[in-house]
Amino acid sequence: MIESSHVKKAADVGPFAHLRPNAEIGEGAHIGNFVEVKNAEIGNHTKVGHLTYVGDATLGEDINVGCGVVFVNYDGKQKHHTKVGAHSFIGSNSNIVAPVTIEDHSSIAAGSTITNDVPEYALAIARARQVNKEGYAKKLPYLN
Question: Given 50, 80, 81, 105, which residue is catalytic?
Answer without folding.
Answer: 50
